């Protein structure tokens, strides 16, 4: 017999439970459960706390809440994951509580807005950044000279802590910060990340190169007025006492020779033209191969990726979000192509210059992208641009795949 986990394969709590089961070598079967009302209505009565995910044991009884499920799995299949003596057992619970209370409470206000789960004020975000660093400092100090949080082998504390700081390492702390400020945490995290059990539970984890900024809602007019009044009340400083603003480093793309193709004019004309075939004819008349270049790219899926549309769309959205500052130099159609169970993230791009720019090379996903420069002198490459840029509806087919979720990057 096997134990059954009812939950979504991509839910962070479900992934953490799966990670625990793989390390414990437990006979666990995932019953993929989505937000479908009919499916939830049929299964929910089995959930003891009325929440997902939940675990159905070998004798048919059920458990809810991730920590309870993980403790059960460890007790049943690999007790040493809870510590090998009373003191280690206490330490395991200590670091589990630190992960679920201290780390999570500090990180959530920074992570929630990235996924659109919840928005926080600028003050809350700033305070959370400081709180998170203090709590990560504690973890950094504890891991000095250690391979694991407790004892000489992996425990449930490592598994839970890994999941709680996963998004911190993916979206908030770039490589320089990980290498210099949290080198012990980074070494510990990277070791677990490369284990077969973690890869099987979470898939490919791409560590942060550039922090993703949390979205902060605009302030109300009344708050803005109050701030403006406060500024007016402050005495004006003398010009010679004012600090000169630091000059921003120039983007190499701004240093390129002028192009006959005006990108912003092209974007407006192309997007406003309902006859996309006509828009493409005009584009080819204006295209400047010396000032711009065209590229086809595709994300390299892991075996478990590209199965569910909304998850694949989220990956596509995160990729584009991190390129917001690149919009003034590029135009593209980028999206999810295929059908349920077999999706690919692809696109055809045009950007300033004839080589791959730094914005793309420095992107977290760049090592996992297949990129090919297109040659407009080849009819098949020129047709590829036409197909991607004009076929953007769900019923349209490009390279043998339906345009499931496609958008213009402009």
Offer a few descriptive terms:
single chain, 4-stranded mixed β-sheet, 3 domains, 15 helices, Glutaredoxin, alpha+beta, 46% helix, 6-stranded antiparallel β-sheet, Glutathione S-transferase Yfyf (Class Pi), Chain A, domain 2, Alpha-Beta Plaits, 410 residues
Written description of the protein model:
The structure is a single chain. The protein is α+β, with helices and mostly antiparallel strands and 410 residues long. It folds into three domains: 3-77, Glutaredoxin, CATH 3.40.30.10; 102-202, Glutathione S-transferase Yfyf (Class Pi), Chain A, domain 2 (Up-down Bundle), CATH 1.20.1050; 257-409, Alpha-Beta Plaits, CATH 3.30.70.1010. The protein is built from 15 helices and ten strands. The protein has a six-stranded antiparallel β-sheet with strand order 8-5-7-6-10-9, sandwiched between helices. α1 crosses α6 (156-172) and α4 (86-115) packs antiparallel against α5 (122-142). The longest helix has 30 residues, at 86-115. The chain starts with a strand and ends with a strand. The model is unreliable at 238-242 (pLDDT under 50).
Count of helical segments? 15
* CATH homology superfamily name of the largest domain: Translation elongation factor EF1B, gamma chain, conserved domain
Average pLDDT for all residues: 89
Regions with pLDDT < 50 over 5+ consecutive residues?
238-242
Please give the CATH class of the largest domain: Alpha Beta
Rounded to an integer in angstroms, the radius of gyration calculated over CA atoms is 25 Å
